[in-house]
Structures
1.
Amino acid sequence: EVRLEEFGGGLVQAGGSLRLSCTASGLNVDEYNIAWFRQAPGKEREGVSCISSSNGRPYYANSVKGRFTASSDSAKNTVYLQMDDVKPEDTAVYYCAADGTYRLSPLASDYLRAQEYRYWGQGAQVTVSS
């Protein structure tokens, strides 16, 4: 059984930092595209970042590029999302998701389509106060 669990959500002031983690069981994070999505109240789910299993590189949505950093720890089978210089508009429930499809593209958008991800975590609330 595949399971993804997010940790690290909470309340942070604008300009601060927060780190989310996603621990996987039942799959190897190095063999899957592991992405972070977020959904704010009343808005559609938005792709934030993805670490590609094809080349190990992270890809980011323009809205977080330069502020968020995705990384992975194979020994812990865990993926992280370091969120720096957070803004109130980053407030959302953050989900990690896994997909085993081979992709190799220079475009972040090719890795951040929610409908292509099979496995999802339960989500972690991130609230940024102004």
2.
Amino acid sequence: QVQLVESGGGSVQAGGSLRLSCAASGDTYTMWCMGWFRQVPGKEREAVAGLPTNGDPSEYADSVKGRFTISRDNTGNSLYLQIDSLKPEDTASYYCAASTQASCRWSLLQNVKYAYWGQGTQVTVSS
């Protein structure tokens, strides 16, 4: 079992930045991938970025490339999402996720690969 807790959301103006954090605990050694997803009420949850835990390259959704950066700390138990040049359409609840499936490395942006989810943190961007 893996537990995930996000933090760092908030309300910002367009063009601003935020850094989201996710603290992982439990059987973190079983994680093959970690990722960030977001969801707006009434819409499906969409992938933002994914990162294998073995150091392989990360992957980003086209809509956030160049603006979002996913990273982990040296312990591997903290995941971050640096969000720059925020746009109103980035407004959503952001969720941290972890996968214990080795195959997630080839499907980083598929939410079905992730079994563990945090409770979400809200990001609101005003124009």
3.
Amino acid sequence: QVQLVESGGGLVQAGGSLRLTCAASGSTLFFTTFGWYRQASGKQRELVAQINSRGTTNYAASVKGRFTISRDSAKSTVYLQMNGLKPEDTAVYYCNAVVESRRFPWGQGTQVTVSA
């Protein structure tokens, strides 16, 4: 059973940076498009960044130009570099495959809190 473990979250002031890490245990699984999602309190989970096996990336409009997704397939790890953080980026961040049929059980996520 593949387990996804997200880490790197924390409390940061507006304008600050964080780097999130998504590690997969049990398999090398990043031949599929993988993404970072976030879920703010009381809101639905949303996809904010994705990267395919060739390294092509896409971003939600709300984070474009501030967030950068990358992957290290040899390490089964996906990263999210977040710069210029805003209070509205506050959420629990998760990683998983983008195609629903290829998803793994969701991990615990990592909390990102941005203070004004």
4.
Amino acid sequence: VQLVESGGGLVQPGGSLRLSCAASGFTFSSYVMSWYRQAPGKERELVAAISSAGAGINYVDSVKGRFTISRDNAKNLVYLQMNSLEPEDTAVYYCNAFRGHNYWGKGTLVTVSS
């Protein structure tokens, strides 16, 4: 099983990034996929989640209207489009797959700074 995140980096406040997570080794289309983040000195928090077929989506309040989660079950990919980034969004972002048990990626660092 592998979850490999990409797309992180340094961006100025107000900018955008798109994170991708490539999944392999399990039946991707059967799993809820989520993005979590962990900022320095803080606990890991759920940012966004999307159901297996993509019909159900949830966001933490702090990113609503700015972030969009999506998935491509044909390509085993999940995305997080992040717009209007703020310094408070600085964190390591982790891809998660859940179906009674969890799979985690190693994370990608997003730094929002001028």
